[in-house]
Amino acid sequence: MHFSIPETEVRSGENGSTYVAYNIHVNGVLHCRVRYSQLLGLHEQIKKEYGSNVVPAFPPKKIFTLTPAEVEQRREQLEKYMQAVVLTHLMEK
């Protein structure tokens, strides 16, 4: 199973604010669009289940609005994180 995050989208929230959505593809097909906070929540759940020493490092949260270059850097980091989680899980089997 191959996870990728080939692109991002700027979307509008309920209160009119904007946020970055990460388009997650599984085996080349769009599976879902998620916010950073949702992936962070998933990371926290994985840590609880498997322990901190087994889970790859998660890209840090930023306080200020991200520039386009920072969004791209975070996209790349999140993609590597998702791939590392899958590899870690497969190696445990």
Automatic annotation (TrEMBL):
Superkingdom of origin organism: Eukaryota
PROSITE patterns per record: PX
Domain PX intervals: 1-93
Encoding gene, per UniProt annotation: SNX17
Gene3D superfamilies found in the cross-reference section: Phox-like domain
Name the UniProt record assigns to this protein: Sorting nexin 17
Gene Ontology biological-process entries: endocytic recycling; intracellular protein transport
GO molecular function annotations of the record: phosphatidylinositol binding
Pfam short name (any one): PX
An annotated GO cellular component: early endosome
CDD domains with a match to the protein in the record: PX_SNX17_31
